[in-house]
Amino acid sequence: MILEIEHLSVSVNKQPLFTDLEFNLRPAESVWLHGPSGSGKTVLTQLLAGIAAPEIKVEKGKVFFKQKLILSEKKWTHAERKILYISEFSCKSFSPALKIKSQLLENRSEREKVAEWLELLNLSSCLLEKFPAMLSGGEVQRLLLLLALLQDPEILILDEPCNHLDFFSEQQIVELISKIRKQKGFALILVAHNRRVARRLTEKAYCLKNRCLKEDSYDKLKLPTGNLKKNFLNKNGEDYLQLEAVDKFYFNKSKFKRQSRQEVFCNLNFVLQKGTSALLLGASGSGKSTLGKILFNLTPIQKGRVVFFNCNWQQPADFYRKNQILFQHSVLSFNPLIKLKADFEQLKRNFRLDLSLRETEQRLFQLNLPADTLERFPRQLSAGQLQRAALLRLLILRPEFLFLDEPFNYLDQENIDLLWDLLFRLQQENNLTLLIVAHNPFDYWHFFDQHFSLSGKNIIRFHDYQEVIADGDLN
Fold it and tell me: Strand, coil or helix: what is 133?
């Protein structure tokens, strides 16, 4: 065995997380670790990699790597371990102040190796000249994988590795990881909610639930129900917003090279009807998140205009109360130094909300969040819980329009179904308009009234997901 866990019990802030956990991993074996949000999957894998937070305490048990004790209630060592962990928070892994090349290339001998990996990962070498903030979520995710593979791990832990990848990039990454794992012979622990990825990358499944870890079967896993679809297409055809002939581009500036222009959109036209739910697809880096920033005037455009119809907003605060955006990395939008309650109180003051405690508790219940969520610091919640808390922060404003950028990231299937049910109920009650960015068009296609894709610097409407597969620009 390359990794052995014996009777491991762990607590977080003196609260038991899991007890008497046992697990063995053979060399070159691949396993899938899944379970509900907040069950402790990330904490367990961070313990194995030696990077767990200070409030996480081993109460009893031992962990052995290649028959050497690396973790117990009295010992926690990094020595001679080659266990590498890629976080689900990929955007935090690179320094925002340095270009990518400064963080990947330490010497000339690595340059050729990095160039080879970039080609295998379907990444352009020009990304090395950019800062992390200039990259899409999918590009950052693939660069992290590159960084890990350069260090020749013996155990690679991937925490939601395909969260920010479009469908075709996901397929490429899965095939590449499978190929590299066979060549290099490292063991793999995959933490993911994506069943499709898990089936292709792993040989065994384990479920962490109710403080216990048990071997599971792929066949027992719940598929998307498909029974939440309701037709809310506005029969009156009233438009809510429109983009007219929008041009958007960035300038790539370099000290030694001529300034070049990178086009994102060219003559983009788009109309969204009131009370509908629309799906927005597109490859990583195609401009989906940029479109959301344009709608909310968070980035300038070079040509065209954005129009919201039948609006009576007197102040910017009126606009931002009725129209809200959930960013791709919304779990990082909370102040780590204050409890969520203080964050929500500030929101109420900013928008002068008259929000009852009962309504907040009702929303917490609808989003399957613990009753004491607002009394916790962000670090005391799982990624899935933080994602739902970010959605809660939007919903208490009672918006008319929501732009949700990858809202299903970090969520298990049960919570995805709960979120869909809540959003469609709000649509029915409040005529809510939804524009949702998602990379997986297949499991949730039937939940939407309209389907669009950013392709070739413009937007295309699809009527069947087979058209998405046939569209070459998505690959």
Answer: helix
Order of strands across the sheet that contains 56-65: 15-25, 3-12, 56-65, 68-72
**C-beta neighbour count of 384 within 10 angstroms:** 27
**Is the dihedral angle over the CA atoms 402, 299, 134, 285 positive or is it negative?**
positive
User: CA 372, CA 377: separation in Å to the nearest integer?
Assistant: 11
**How many residues would you count in the chain?**
475
Region 416-441: what's the mean pLDDT?
85
Orientation of helix 413-430 relative to helix 383-395, angle to 10°: 0
Q: What is the DSSP string of 110-121?
A: HHHHHHHHHHHT
What pLDDT, on a 0 to 100 scale, did the predictor assign at position 161?
83
Tell me the pTM.
0.74
Question: How far apart, in whole angstroms, are the C-alpha atoms of residue 36 and residue 415?
Answer: 8
Q: What pairs with residue 10 in β-bridges?
A: 18, 58
Cβ neighbours of residue 374 under 8 Å, at least 6 residues apart?
A: 339, 340, 341, 344, 360, 364
Q: Give the strand order in the sheet containing 401-405.
A: 323-326, 401-405, 433-437, 277-281, 450-455, 458-462
Task: List, in sequence order, every residue forming a beta bridge with 288; answer none if it has no partner.
Answer: none
